[in-house]
Model the fold of this input.
Amino acid sequence: MKGKPVLEAQNINKYFYSPEKTRVLKDVSFQVTRGEFVSVMGKSGCGKSTLLYILSTMDTDYHGKLLIDEELVSGKNANRLSQIRNEKIGFVFQFHYLLNEFSVLENVMIPGLKLDKKSKQELEHIAMEKLRIFDMQDHALKKANQLSGGQKQRVAIARSLMNDPLIIMGDEPTGNLDKKNSDIVFKIFKELAQEFHQTMLIVTHDPEFAAGTDRIIEMEDGRVLRD
Amino acid sequence: MAKALMLARLKQTVVAAIGVVFSITMFVTLLGFMNGLNQLLDNLVLNRTPHIRFYNELKPSPTQPVELSDKYRSFHNVVRSIKPAASRMSIYNNEAIIKTLLDDPRIVGVAPKIAAQVFFNVGAIDVNGVINGIDVEEESRLFAFDDYVTEGDFVDLKNTANAIILGKGAADRMLASIGDVVQVTTAQGNSIQLKVVGYYQSGLGELDNVQSYASISTVQKMLGEPPSFVTDIQVKLNDFDLAPGMAKEYSAIFGIDADDIQTVNAQFEAGSGIRSMISYAVGITLLIVSGFGIYNILNMMIYEKMDTIAILKAIGFSGRDVNLIFITIAITIGFFGGVLGLFFGFIAGLGIEQIPFELDALPTIKTLPVDFNPKYYVIAGVFSLVTTYFAGYFPARKASSIDPVDIIRGK
Ligand SMILES: Nc1ncnc2c1ncn2[C@@H]1O[C@H](COP(=O)(O)OP(=O)(O)OP(=O)(O)O)[C@@H](O)[C@H]1O
Ligand SMILES: [Mg+2]
Done:
């Protein structure tokens, strides 16, 4: 299992053209193999989020090559990219981004409903299991906006796990939480790494968090400084 | 997905749907009512008008004697002051013609008629009039004669000897009531006494002032003509759009003149055409306005739900999925609004139909007329779906092209 590349970035360059042409990412290359728990650190504005959007296939405006699960995704059409995101990538944002129109359980189920490979009952069951990992099963029927910030983030992580993705990407998932809640979320990530061997790539500002991961990629000014 | 978004914005959704309900209701009611009125007016004339009328017109014969002579045939002859020949008003061989016509499957029925110019002798003065000799049963069956006999019984025309049904206007002028006997003089000078058994009222005053009815045999007797004497043959068709073609066809076969209903009532058709065009225009305008309502509400929804759309895209929904969600919302509003609108439109139609509407001139009408032709319901239904689809199309396209990175970064 271990050793197989999940994510491979080859010479990724990114430019922004407004207000003037700036090169935000400079020849970024690295590989993430299965089961790795990787954190990305760097000063504010060095291009971490920008990189993550490219790696998650949401941003397609870049130069270089990106392979996910050994499949070249650069230049693929938008529908295929949506499929890849749905099946292989779980994304956790700094802001929880749950859908307030739905219950907690439905929020977790949505990626599964979109994938449309299992019956609704099965999906409900799976979603419940995921919520249980985070001790959120009692809140399953609440509306998403009836939860606290920390609870929301736990639900968001549960949602990212719904389709058993190859890799979870997070952009400062603890950035918006207080100490206590961020500790809880951090513990969850460690658990996912140790018990489920979940591959993860997490951007963080928290050195303590980073120290607990398998590998730290340090960025500065659009480059990979240390790996 | 679509359902959840609609429930989240229930109020706007309902407002949009009410817009559709209102416009569809108005559309159906308006068209039903307008066309009810149109049909009423059409029927006033068209129901009673034969689709084709065969007759002999008084006209000069196309070949003058001089052209028959061997000597002058090759010359260019000028004949001045030609007068019509004393040709027969009667349609020659009309029994055979009627038999041929009745064998044509396109024809519903045939009724012979004699129109006779007469004077009603009222005291010292003579009142001008026309007595139509009709086949009472066929005239009723084909041209709703009985509907317009407002007093008296139309069958008495057949069952009573020398009976007449007077036009209401004529009767009023002559002060003749039912049971009275009127003295009639024909253009040829024959006099006859006829018994009034009823009044005829068509709703068209100028007709009612001159037209009276008697059975065809009474008129033949009055004119001193044999039972083969018939001046008009009236034909009713299954499809009156065929009238012009068939009129030409049979006119050529029988060698007699023929009028078709379209030519005779051309301006009437134009009038009802314009009326229904106006009602379609008003109805469609209403629908388009409600379409803009839906467009606005969906646009607002999309601005409010930017985050939701972004997150859906990040999770793996494609632009097409997002597009479908918003189109579904629009179509759902259109569908339910449309169904309710059709229902209320139908109810409104029933309501209007209950409103009393009585006019002396329109004896057959008791309440306001409404046309419940399913055509209007189908048009309204289809149109509500089409407008809501287009109202949803542009907002949906905008939603599907939202770039999730922009939204997420903007936080
Ligand atoms: N849409 C944009 N247009 C122009 N420049 C941009 C745009 N988005 C980001 N940038 C610039 O790109 C650089 C990298 O931004 P990015 O958001 O990736 O930084 P970051 O490392 O995530 O910072 P932080 O730790 O504060 O989140 C910054 O200098 C930023 O100003
Ligand atoms: Mg960032």
About this structure: Chain A has one domain: 5-226. The first strand of chain A starts at residue 5 and ends at 16. Chain A has seven helices and ten strands.
